[in-house]
Amino acid sequence: MLKSIRALVTTSAVLLLLGWAGPADARQDQQDKQKNQEKRQEQGKPARQDQPQANRQQDQPNQQQRQQDKGQQDQQRQQHQQQDNSAKQQANRQQDQQHQQRQQQDNSAKQNQQQAKRQQDQQAQQQHQQQDNSSKQQANRQQDQQRQQRQQQDNSAKQNQQQARRQQDQQQQQRQQHDNSARQQQEARGQQDHQRQQQQDNRSAQERSPAQARQQQVAWQGDRAHIWQSEHRTWQQRGGYNGYRVPEDRFRGYYGQEHGFRIYSLPVMYVGGHRRFQYGGYWFGLVDPWPEYWSNDWYDSDDVYVDYYGDGYYLYNRRYPGDRIAISFYLN
């Protein structure tokens, strides 16, 4: 369509130019003929200076004719100018119309492109959204499955732990019952041993002669302190207890505050010049001297007991409960 309009405009312009050029050429030829004729007439006439009036009369029609021709030429020129202006205006209007049409077509094409792009963007966005939703749903399902599996595993582990704890509780109850039974038996044996020991102490005291008692008193004087508060040391001060440790169940059966005895009646032996006493199936010996303010026959008349305090074993005298003498156990 644009090509047809351009061809029409070109053809109209050519025709207008040809229409203006044809009359102009004809008029120019007519003027040239007239001028040539006038020249021939002037050449054929003799020159006379005494006829100025006649020449003026002859020149007047020619001048009028020239003015008339000039007026016609001016009119024709104006007409051609108007025709040219009209043709130019028409061509400009046609060009403007063509430009507007092209602009409209370009705008329509741009709108179509934009609309198509929006549709493509919407479709792509919808596809991405659907893919994202599908991926999220799949991930959520996988997470739910994993969470359920972990929950099942946790529940199974809790059940196993509870079952193991119940078994441990049952075993602990059984051990507790067994320990209670063993403790009762040991306490019963300890009471029997204590009774036998008291009976033996009484017999020993009755059978001991005054000379023997004097001899024991002299022997014990060598272990007496001069100033016990400065001479005795705790196991912590000695660097900790490093001797033999009595098993807990055995210790509860023969030692502690409830198991008192008297040292004089115990079996004794000397190792390296130091006395060791046997009680409850174990040998023990005094590491500290005994306080100088205790009675001379405390080993014979005072009830003592062995107990564990903080950092080691100590011998306690019931008559002086604030004092404790460091002792050490031996297997033999």
The DSSP helix count reads 6
Tell me about the largest β-sheet: 6 strands, antiparallel
What is the H-and-E element order?
HHHHHEEEHEEE
Total domains = 2
What spatial order of strands do you see in the largest sheet? 1-2-3-6-5-4
Helix content range of the residues, please?
55-70%
Task: Kindly name the structural category.
Answer: alpha+beta
Terminal Cα span: 132 Å
Morphology call: rod-shaped
Poorly predicted runs are none
| Total strand segments | 6
* C-alpha Rg (nearest Å): 74 Å
Mean pLDDT level: 80
Can you describe this structure in just a few lines?
The protein has 332 residues and is of the alpha+beta class. The chain has helices at 2-44, 52-207, 210-221, 228-231, 248-254, 298-301; strands at 268-271, 274-279, 282-286, 304-309, 312-317, 320-330. Helix 1 runs antiparallel to helix 2.
Structure notes:
- This protein is of the alpha+beta class and 332 residues long.
- The protein folds into two domains: 1-31 and 73-179, no CATH class; 208-330, no CATH class.
- Helix content is 68%, strand content 11%.
- The chain contains six helices and six strands, in the order αααααβββαβββ.
- It is rod-shaped.
- It starts with a helix and ends with a strand.
